[in-house]
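Inputs:
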Amino acid sequence: MQRTRLVASILLLAAMAISIWRVETAPQPVPLAPTLTRQTEYCLTCHSELAEISPSHPIETFGCVICHGGERLALDADLAHSSLRGGRNPSDFSVVQESCGGEDCHSGSAAQARDHIPRVLRSIQATYAGAIANMRYTFGAQEDLSARMGIFAIQDPNPTSSSVPGLSAFDPSQETHPSLIAFSQNCLSCHLSSEPLPGKEYARLTGCAACHTPTAGTDLEQPLHRLTTAIPYTQCNTCHNRGNYELRSMHFQARSDQPTNRLDDYYQPIAQFVRCEWTLDCIDCHTRQEAMGDGHIYSSQKEAEYVRCYTCHGTLDELPLTRTISDPNDLALRLAFVNPQFDLQVGDTIIITDRGEPLWNTRRLPDGSYELLAKASGQRFTFRAVKGSACQQSAEQQESSYCHACHAVER
Amino acid sequence: MPAMPSSDNLPTTPVNRRDFLALATRGVLALNGLLGVGMLLRFLSHPPAPSSANEVDLGPASNFPIGSQTVMAQANLVLLHTEAGFQALSLECPHLGCLLNPEPGGFSCPCHGSRFDSSGALLRGPASKNLKPLSIEQNHEGHLIVRY
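Outputs:
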């Protein structure tokens, strides 16, 4: 009995000594009380060297925990990180609503253009609905090409005549055709919830960060703490233009080269491209609704993509659609603000798309020509409308192949 | 006077095992107690988590003449003195709380581009409200006290 008491008291002493040692060796906490939450957090004790993620998310305002989660007062790394949302990536779609959502943040109203999260979750880059529908139709699992399934189940409460009202989750275990089973095993690596293929050329995160955190050609193990709307084409190419899926074996055939010259190396050798297609970045022409969805669910990329050559250049009969900014709350000004290389002002006339989306990086110049700012590179280009030029294109011939006939660059 | 016995000759009382264990247990428990008291004192003396002050003394009201507009960056506010009296406005953007930058004719948000005129009225979103007025009063010493 006496011996048991001694052993117990020694164990108690050891526990107290360990506790004191841990307290004494713990770092001195660095407090931060961000203005948005007013709750003290100690994350900067270890993470003071981390670069600010973007000018729109200053740490004094947001802190860390509102986006990342975690135990805000913990000084032990394991404990502090024990409740992180999405691990290192709080924009992963499994947690994006908690991390990035909110009425004043990224899941507000469509009228305020703050519905980024509901839009992107219905976008074809997130649902992968087009590829799934195509494969299921090809191998007899469904009767037409209309999308029925996505990477996850999703609904659209206000579908249009050209969109689908909802998708159920694609469940490979319910498929019987060997090619569909192989498709589910080998070909689901190019949507916004999938982990990338191994290799620096595929390096990207998931969710919002797949596009907004530039990682192309980098080591994903490095600290990554950046969000930007100036997304270079190289980031798009972590998924796009990397090879093809071979439909007989249902395996991805990666391109064997590592292209560096965009005109000569990057694209398929038989295709033709005009100058703006290989000098600009993808986001200079393709709009936010094309990339992140317009809130509706579509069956194919063709239904989601709609910007054409004439959007900027017009036709023989029509100048491009434009809008002169008169409202200081115009969406174009808000979008331009987060890319301060382009000083858009009330009174400027910008090009708009068929659906009224502002191409905020364009401006009509006093001589009737137009200016475009490349969002990622900062380069400025001027161009003229087709109307009044020597172009002989007919009004019905607006597909890019007709433009390529005369304007494709030799290579 | 009897001679002191040498240490070699001191009478020895054999310590049996039971007594030794009891003595050792008491010693270890005493050490535990000391450490426990030390930890308790350390805990009680630990400074509380810092919290932002809920009021700030802006100094004598006479420092701010009528017509003045004074940005108090440390307090995240702008003090206006008009014919109607003193008014303090928060310089935290009512959209998400970013600290506004003074600019000619008003204030602008460096995060998302909201703008306000010099009286705090909203000129441009994404904020949807004017700058928040703060409670301000003059104490018996003539100092302006702002409460958040």
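Remarks. Residues 123 and 293 of chain A are 4 Å apart (CA to CA). Chain A has three domains: 2-84, 116-267, 306-407.
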